[in-house]
Amino acid sequence: MSEVSKIRTFPPSQESWGGEAAFEGMHRKGELRGIIKINQDNCVGCDTCTAFCPTEAIKGSLGVAHAISTNKCVACGQCLVNCPFGAIEQMSFVDIVMEKLADPKAFVVSHPAPAVRVAIAEEFGAPAGELTINRLYNAFEKAGFHNYDINFAADQTILEEGTEFIKKVRYWVLGERGEDLEHVAHHPLPHFTSCCPAWVKNAETFHPQLIPHISGAKSPIQMGGPLAKTWAAEFVWKKDPRDIYMVSVTPCTAKIFEASRPEFNSAYEYLKENNKIPQDTPSFQDIDAVLTARDAAEIFRRKGINPLTMSDEREMETMNVYTGAATIFGASGGVMEAALRTAYFILSGTELSNPDITLVRGYEQDIVEATIPVPLKALNGKVINVKVAVVNGASRNIKEIVKRLTDDKNQYHFVEVMNCPGGCVNGGGQPVRTMGTSWLHPLLPLPLRA
Amino acid sequence: MEATKENYFYAEKPVGQLLSRRDFLKAAGVSVSAIAISGYAITDIVQKRKSYIALRQQGLYKDDKRLQKANLTGSHQNASCLKVYQDMGTKPMGEVAEQLLHTKTYVDRSNLLMQGAHHV
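Above: the input entities. Below: the structure tokens describing the complete assembly.
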């Protein structure tokens, strides 16, 4: 296996957030655009990237320097990871976060995603898949961060999304009616996951008919942001929420876009409504900055920190508690497996005898299908068959899953969509080690493409 | 200029003079090993080029196993999550949870583009 390649970055400019208009093209005011950019001087026009783009957003043919359509781009970064010439660049907030770390008034919080802990060490010479947990926490602490593990927020996501899914099953499968189920009457099955921001933007742009099916539960990061500035500020850190600066560390470039969505300032709205901050406070986002795993490694390098040499000892703190269900979010099929573990427990009243639902794990297959029998406690053990599907990579499979839903009988209850093949572990913000061989991709027979 | 039967004459050299049996074996041996080695190298690259995805996934499942042993298998076993609901006076999909943890704002972006269309 080869070394990790270096990816060029650029800081956001004033235009990155758009002008004063309420919307421009397909972006609303304040939403970041142009997160992934092809450097016209370095692009040789090999056309490799177009095969990896889930939305056909890359313009240009063989031999011509390519360019990305800002409107169509979902910022997933798959083109960047697979470019054999390193010609694709990423918008980076490293400089802005470095400034905040130097500000003594700011309480800077690192919020690392599951897939980061199995990849960031590669930037420091470790083999792929090296698991760093306490070493990573200690490295963040040394760099001046306070840690809040996204995995904790991922558990919160499962509790919210699992509850939502169970309500949908009660309304749409079991035919129950009642005041607490009114909300889900507008959100029919199949239930789509909402954790992947590239998938959400893809659906909003190209499959708006699916919007009512997407889970209303936010992604783990967007649950972590508001909880940090409301609950943790008051009950754990005892800090003024206005001083908290949330930095999520993600395997993903689309999260940079997600954090800028204007509606994701719910901590601000909540605090203002409950008079916990002065009414004239200017609005702030739930997540202030997003770093990719590569960016976080850059911060460590600038500060002379190597996570691999940090101590592996650390006491368990409230903000870093998480379960196995949360950590597998980073692998394709993981959100599904995590949701099923909790939904099964709530519906049947007992724990799964074997919590490893390997049936739904995606690595080699494009679309994974499975049927999970769940006995219902409320109906004296009557069994319902929950039909699930996991979409492993958006570039080839979104059209297929939409076809299966619309042309064929609508057969699924729960669909997980991961934009990147293999899940977040292969995200656009991860250390890049495709060895410049991505041009092979279109030539390979299907089983070898995974 | 057209070649005619009369001025065309060519006799092949005997094979032995061009390439002796030993030479042929040498050449064949070298080409077979060159093809085999490069073929192996290419197969190796093809098989390994995406192996890092599987390795990273294995890293996560290793973490999962570690937590399962500590009786932290499903999200409902996370004590910190339960503390959040307790402190905030809410429950999953309760009023405060809805305000902080749910969204109603998915935008039909195809429609957004149409609204912005300039009809000159």
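Note for the figure: Chain A touches chain B through 96 residues (CB under 8 Å).
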